[in-house]
Design a protein that fits this description.
The protein is α/β, with parallel strands linked by helices. The chain has 16 helices and 13 strands. Helix content is about 45%, strand content about 15%. A seven-stranded parallel β-sheet has the order 3-2-1-4-5-6-7, sandwiched between helices. A six-stranded parallel β-sheet has the order 10-9-8-11-12-13, with helices on both faces. The longest helix has 19 residues. The chain is globular. It binds uridine-diphosphate-N-acetylglucosamine (UD1) and uridine-5'-diphosphate. Uridine-5'-diphosphate (UDP) binds next to helix 1, helix 11 and helix 12.
Amino acid sequence: MDKLRIMSVFGTRPEAIKMAPLVKELKMRDGVESLCCVTAQHREMLDSVMDVFGLTADRDLDIMTPSQTLSTITSKCLLGMDGAIEELKPDMILVHGDTSTTFAGALSAFYHRVPVGHVEAGLRTYDKYSPYPEEMNRALVTRLADLYFCPTRRNRDNLLREGVGAEGVFVTGNTVIDALKTTVRDGYVFATEELNALDYDGRKIVVVTCHRRENYGEPMRQIMTALRDLAAQNEDAELVYPVHLSPVVREAAGKYLAGAPRVHLIDPLPADEMHNLMARAYLVMTDSGGLQEEAPALGKPVLVLRRETERPEAVEAGTVALAGVRYDDILRMGNALLRDASAYAVMARAVNPYGDGNACRRIADAIEWHFGRRAARPEEYLP
Ligand code: UD1
Ligand code: UDP
């Protein structure tokens, strides 16, 4: 029997981190040819992930230029995908999450009549402009996809409510937990010297990230000035902020945070460094999706610098709280966690609503089952 040709398409840092263990799982299957097409919507931040996980692209569309618009990204991905699909002839294309690469990858697969598997399917805020453009990207991919790999039951229920047929929907857990299991180690020594120099036992290390498009402008100003004042008001805290390479974000971080006491602005970290930094930190403050999933698994409280979240499971479990995007709220909630030991203890518990580290095995099983290469439907992740 011919091998199934399964092509994973991704282009940004978080997609790469979350698809890396799946590309590898598929490579281990005798009946599968695991192919990898990167759009390089991100360049340096993607290459770093490829290095950390030892991945090589079969096709690199190399689309990134500085400060690209959404239309440029989408159209360049679409044009590049034509060649990749014609050359690599996949039986199925896998896309991840909700970026412009995700949407263009799925749309291009549809144009070529190639079935689509959507990894991290079913997340929703039901607010068209928040997160922007991710909420619309993932909703559109739902219409284009054939198989749906949902991290949680809630994600599955969202899809079923929208009329997606149950046969193609699988609750698998999030592949980010699979990735985290390979990167976090006791006794890890950082390649970034500044991280080895931090006093993780004596001081409260707060890991910060902020990059979302809907936070550009006034929300980012309020977030960053609140972070600056939080560091100023807490002498036992150190904020470590690996700044995203987006020019908009770098300009804002430079303007509001450069030179502030106890604020370390550093370049983006390789994924293994970032995961081990979080594992040793006291608190995470972020607008990132991935960090909201990783930190709870590491037992670290998270304050989310957004108005809403499509990841309410950890909020319900009590380890993640929405701080919003207003200066007063962020400062108040940050101060509470830095100063009130009992408030902190309530949130600092390891919970795993997003997976058990076996998502990739379930996804690969489901794909083989879909193509008739496996008798039984895979077991699902239903804790
Ligand atoms: C993108 C995704 C977002 C995801 C985020 C993860 C879209 C529309 N947005 O947002 O969903 O949460 O990635 O980080 O798909 N840049 C570099 N080098 C890099 C990466 C980025 O220079 O390695 C700069 C470029 O100038 C680029 C800009 O950052 O134009 C913005 O990148 P872009 O992919 O458009 O948006 P993100 O904010 O990164
Ligand atoms: N991350 C990283 N280095 C950094 C910042 C984040 O490796 O300097 C990782 C983080 O651990 C998570 C992912 O990148 O796995 C999240 O990516 P990002 O915040 O860019 O995107 P989002 O998750 O918001 O889509």
